[in-house]
Backbone:
């Protein structure tokens, strides 16, 4: 009966006369106009999720016969945010979210995607947003549609496992995805994918993703298919899965294709499968962090620490138990580190590339239960996951025409990479893989908690978690409930053709849950970083960092200017209960100007946020007050003038205008700079709070700085 129903629905979509022809012609015209306006005369090669160049048109049909789906929903409806109906404040006293609310959230997101689906042949292809994203020519459209299919299925698969009869926009969701899976091997279908003929491509990634969902909801997505359909999919997917890959998280997509079809009784190249698994494990550097060739960022978590443990549960425990155990052991290490990256209220940080994947960052948290760890606070894990989900779903800028925007909250080009299309954002769907856990699991039945924030992290103190393998530093600030990250960055702009590893996604001195990062301006508007006026007269930020040490609460890095190695910075970050004490030694080969920026505050209205300069002790503190926070910048040594508050435009992910406290100085030779970058939530600073430093003493050779804090504690920095 199910097969007959699918066939009938498919028949309704086959004939253009039944409603798809006008839709296709209309959409094609829109796309042609979009392509010409976005990148006229600049056809580009496709890009992998690591930014590698790949050929998107060599392994798929030409896209000229089809195009984007129908017009988007009304903008007013698109601005309606997700609401937690009948919150359960007993089980979830912080978010009200339970498993049923997560199901509702998944349906909320899928409704936006299915508003573009009117028949089974319609594809998950959404309006382009931001010029820098793909597709940039018709040859890339097919892969963009495949991304939409595979990534929305991350949300749909767990929902279908619970509710195979789910219907959205009048379409049976299971019918739709099965129809699209079958059409991948149908040469007469618009969804057809040819067998691999070239190197690694985005197609590999999306087919591997499909295998995760096909296993997660196997009884709904895979088992109903005929043997002929299954054999055709196996032949297609294995042509990619056993083919070339990229030596990063991409190897997981080969692994999932081979493991899925091995699980279904097909012959696969087990030598390649085991080889890729071991290479993935070789990327592990300790304390829960994998290196993704070469960066540390959320790919450690939404890829390695999600795909690895999930593979162990779905396939590894019975295919390769020894390898599965290694992934599980590595997973356990994240418990003592990764959850501390989130704010007390559970919000995530804006840090690293692909940040438009947002709350996919919580994906590993429910998966911890598969390993049966008995030292995990599952109530804390679910609090983080639900809060991060609501951080975005309750923001009115998150959806545009029913689809998540290309940015952090709303559209924000500096945080988006050229390898992304609009459908890429549904990587967020991996967060819903936690719904594969049964309703009576510890994760779903534990009472929400604040974890260590409740009692272990005490007000008036600051807490650092240093991870030697990755040299990452996580800092928790109980006074405000924020968390901060300091991480790897060592990439030149000249060598970074993808233009993201050398960018603000990585090059800030620190990243804080309370202050989403501001993009750099051309006139020295630089937040949480140093800028130097280079020989071209341009403001150039630091990006070539070399980690030195973390001892006694002092995080040390050296940095050189990319265009002039005679410009050297020796940096020391000292987290304090209400901010950061910076002790930095700057050397220049020729006289020049430098600037140092604080974090920024969004300015929601037209009135400038109020700023002031006040004398505290022997120093002048510059403050600016926003909706939730007051920032303060206090120059203690090296700066000739107090900080100034400037109001950059078009650089902030939350508002068009923001407020930035900044310092500038003309430098000759070598100079020591000692600076306080402070913040306070919900109230103004007292004079005492602006004076956490009692004294600063610098040695005659300018190689040693001893700072005496108001508490009497001493911090020594040796350059």
Residues:
């Amino acid at each position: 009966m199910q097969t007959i129903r699918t066939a009938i629905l498919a028949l309704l979509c086959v004939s253009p006369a039944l409603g798809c022809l006008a839709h296709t012609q209309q959409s094609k015209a829109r796309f042609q106009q979009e392509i010409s306006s976005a990148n006229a005369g600049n056809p580009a090669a496709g890009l992998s999720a690591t930014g590698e160049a790949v050929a998107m048109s060599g392994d798929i049909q030409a896209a000229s016969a089809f195009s984007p789906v129908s017009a988007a929903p009304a903008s007013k409806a698109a601005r309606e945010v997700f609401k937690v109906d009948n919150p359960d404040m007993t089980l979830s006293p912080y978010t009200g979210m339970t498993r049923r609310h997560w199901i509702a959230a998944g349906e909320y997101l899928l409704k936006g995607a299915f508003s573009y689906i009117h028949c089974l042949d319609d594809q998950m292809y959404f309006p382009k947003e931001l010029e820098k994203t793909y597709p940039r020519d018709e040859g890339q459209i097919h892969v963009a549609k495949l991304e939409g299919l595979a990534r929305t299925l991350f949300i749909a698969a767990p929902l279908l496992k619970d509710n195979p009869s789910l219907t959205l926009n009048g379409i049976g969701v299971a019918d739709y995805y099965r129809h699209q899976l079958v059409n991948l091997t149908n040469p007469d279908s618009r969804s057809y994918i040819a067998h691999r003929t070239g190197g690694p491509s985005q197609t590999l990634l999306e087919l591997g993703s499909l295998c995760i969902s096909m296993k997660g909801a196997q009884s709904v997505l895979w088992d109903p298919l005929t043997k002929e359909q299954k054999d055709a999919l196996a032949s297609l997917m294995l042509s990619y899965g056993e083919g070339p890959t990229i030596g990063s998280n991409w190897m997981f997509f080969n692994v999932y294709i081979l493991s899925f079809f091995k699980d279904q009784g097909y012959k696969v190249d087990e030598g390649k499968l085991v080889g890729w698994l071991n290479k993935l494990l070789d990327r592990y550097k300790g304390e829960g962090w994998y290196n993704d060739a070469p960066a540390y960022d959320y790919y450690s978590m939404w890829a390695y620490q999600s795909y690895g443990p999930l593979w162990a549960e779905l396939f590894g425990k019975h295919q390769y138990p020894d390898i599965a155990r290694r992934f599980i052991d590595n997973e356990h290490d994240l418990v003592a580190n990764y959850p501390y990256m989130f704010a007390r209220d559970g919000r995530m940080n804006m840090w690293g590339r692909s940040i438009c994947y947002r709350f996919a960052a919580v994906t590993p948290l429910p998966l911890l239960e598969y390993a049966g760890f008995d030292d995990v606070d599952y109530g804390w894990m679910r609090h983080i996951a639900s809060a991060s989900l609501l951080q975005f779903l309750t923001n009115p800028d998150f959806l545009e025409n029913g689809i998540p925007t290309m940015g952090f909250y709303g559209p924000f080009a500096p945080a988006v990479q050229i390898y992304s299309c609009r459908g890429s954002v549904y990587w967020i769907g991996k967060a819903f893989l936690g719904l594969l856990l049964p309703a009576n699991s510890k994760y779903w039945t534990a009472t929400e908690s604040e974890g260590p924030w409740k009692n272990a992290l005490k007000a008036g103190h600051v807490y650092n978690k240093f991870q030697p393998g990755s040299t990452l530093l996580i800092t928790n600030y109980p006074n405000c409930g924020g968390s901060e990250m300091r991480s790897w960055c060592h990439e030149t702009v000249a060598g970074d053709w993808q233009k993201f590893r050398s960018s603000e996604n990585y090059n800030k001195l620190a990243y804080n849950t309370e202050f989403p990062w501001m993009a750099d301006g051309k006139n020295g508007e630089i937040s949480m970083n140093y800028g130097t006026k280079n020989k071209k007269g341009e403001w150039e930020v630091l990006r070539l960092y070399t980690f030195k040490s973390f001892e006694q609460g002092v995080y040390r890095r050296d940095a050189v200017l990319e265009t002039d190695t005679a410009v050297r910075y020796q940096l020391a970050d000292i987290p304090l209960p209400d901010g950061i004490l910076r002790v930095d030694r700057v050397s220049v080969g020729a006289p020049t100007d430098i600037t140092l920026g604080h974090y920024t505050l969004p300015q929601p209205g037209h009135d400038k946020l109020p700023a002031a300069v006040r004398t505290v002790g022997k120093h002048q503190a510059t403050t600016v007050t926003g909706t939730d926070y007051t920032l303060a910048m206090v120059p203690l040594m090296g700066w000739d003038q107090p900080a100034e508050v400037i109001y950059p435009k078009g650089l902030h992910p939350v508002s068009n205008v923001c407020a930035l406290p900044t310092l500038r100085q003309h430098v000759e030779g070598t100079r020591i700079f000692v600076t306080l970058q402070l913040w306070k939530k919900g109230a103004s600073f007292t004079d005492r709070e602006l004076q956490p430093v009692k004294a600063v003493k610098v040695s005659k050779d300018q190689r040693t700085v001893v700072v005496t804090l108001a508490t009497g504690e001493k911090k020594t920095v040796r350059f």
